[in-house]
Amino acid sequence: MKYAIIENGTVVNVVLADAQFALTNGWVECQDDVEIGWTHADGVFTAPSEPEIVAPANPTKQELLAELQVLTDKINALG
C-alpha cells in the first residue's frame, strides 16, 4: 500500500509500506496520485494549485529611456 508522511498538514514523503508498519509510524494511506507537496486536512488530500504566471508588463520606450537616465546618472556619480 502507498502511504503519505505528513508534517504540519503537508505531504513530505510518499512510501510503500506494510499497513502495520505505516500505522505504527502514523503514516496515512493515500491514492496513487498523491505526491510530495500535497496538503492533507480532514482526511482529504489536495494537490497544490498551479501558480499563476503573470507576464511582465512591456515598458514603453519613454519608460525605458527614463530608467536609462536614472542609471546613467548613477554611473556618472561614481566618477
Protein described:
- The chain is of the alpha+beta class and 79 residues long.
- The chain has a domain at 1-48.
- Helices cover 30% and strands 27% of the residues.
- The strands form two sheets. The protein has a three-stranded antiparallel beta sheet, covered by helices on one side. The protein has a two-stranded antiparallel sheet with strand order 4-5.
- The N and C termini lie far apart (69 Å).
Task: Spell out the blueprint of helices and strands.
Elements: E1 2-7, E2 10-16, H1 19-25, E3 28-29, E4 39-41, E5 44-46, H2 61-77
Antiparallel strand pairs: 1-2, 1-3, 4-5
Show unreliable segments: none
**Order of strands in the sheet with most strands:** 2-1-3
Shape annotation: rod-shaped
Q: What portion of residues is helical?
A: 25-40%
The class by helix and strand makeup works out as alpha+beta
How far the N terminus sits from the C terminus, by CA atoms, comes to: 69 Å
The secondary-structure element order is EEHEEEH
Strand content: 25-35%
Give the count of helical stretches.
2
> Mean pLDDT, as a whole number?
94
In total, the number of strands is: 5
**Largest sheet geometry:** 3 strands, antiparallel
Backbone CA Rg: 25 Å
